[in-house]
Amino acid sequence: MSAHTVIVTGGAGGVGRALVGRLLDEGRTVVTCDIDEAGLKSLADEHDGRPLETHVRDIASHEDCDAFMDAVLAAHPDVDGLVNNAGLYLGQPVWEYDDETIDRVIGVNIKGPVWLSRRFAGHLLPAERRGAIVNLASVAGEVGSSDALYGTVKAGVIGLTKSNAMNFAPYIRVNVVSPGLIVRTAIADRIPDYRYAEYKRQELLDGDILPEYVADVCAYLLSDRSRTLTGALLRADNGCYPR
Ligand SMILES: NC(=O)c1ccc[n+]([C@@H]2O[C@H](COP(=O)([O-])OP(=O)(O)OC[C@H]3O[C@@H](n4cnc5c(N)ncnc54)[C@H](O)[C@@H]3O)[C@@H](O)[C@H]2O)c1
C-alpha cells in the first residue's frame, strides 16, 4: 500500500518543501517539522486548506523528536510514511570543526533519523502494519566530500538505511536517495565554488537537478510502485561520479 500519511522532516525549504507539495498534490496528508519557523509559516500559507500540519522542532534534540512523534502519533495513528530529509551541510574542512559542531552535524544527519525511525517503527511493527521510510543521503556519502564530517554522516545514512531495512522487515521498507548537486537549495549555496564546478563538470546529463526532481524519487519510494525495494539506494545525480 502506498503511504497515505507521511512525515517529512525539513519541510520548510529545498527538497522537503518540494516533497510536501508533491505529496499534497497526490492527495496525501503531510506532517512536517523544521527549525525554520518563518519557512514553515510560508509553507502553511502556500498550502492553506490542505491536509498539512507543521511543527517547529529540532531533530538534533532527542526531546524534540519525542515530542514531535508524540504529537504525530496521537493525531495521526494511521501514519505510514517517514522521510528523513532534513540535513546539515557546513561545507568546511575537517580541521575547522570544533567538538560542538561535530556533535551538531551528527545530531541532525544521524541521531535525528535514528530516533524518528525507531519511534515510527515502534508504532507500526507491533500492529504488523506496512509502511515506508525514505532517507536522504548524498553522493558525498558514496564518493567522499571536501567536508569530511558530511561525507561521514551521509555514508552513515546509507548504512542506517540498509540496517533498518533488516530491522524493520518485512513490514517497513527502508530506502535511501542519494542526490548530486541540487540547485536552488541552501546547501548548494554553501558548497565551495571549486566543488560546485567539479560537480557540474562530472554530470553526464545536461540541465540542473531541481528539488522537485529529487522529490519525485522520494515519492516513488513511498509508493507501491517501489514495492519490491528495501535497503536500496536510488540516485538523483544526473550521472555524476558513476559508481
Ligand atoms: N542541496 C544539495 O545539493 C544536496 C545534495 C545531496 C544531498 N542533499 C541532502 O538532501 C536533503 C535535503 O537537502 P536540501 O538541499 O533540501 O537542504 P536545505 O538546507 O535547502 O533544506 C533543509 C531543510 O531542513 C531544515 N533543517 C535543518 N536542520 C534541521 C533540524 N535540526 N531540525 C529540523 N529541520 C532542520 C532546514 O531548515 C531546511 O528547511 C538533506 O539531507 C541534504 O543533506 C542535498
TrEMBL record:
Example GO molecular function: oxidoreductase activity
Entry keyword set: Oxidoreductase
EC number: 1.-.-.-
Enzyme's top EC category: oxidoreductase
Classification via CDD domains: SDR_c
Pfam families to which the protein is assigned, alphabetical: adh_short_C2
UniProt family annotation: Belongs to the short-chain dehydrogenases/reductases (SDR) family.
This protein's name: SDR family oxidoreductase
Organism: Streptomyces gottesmaniae
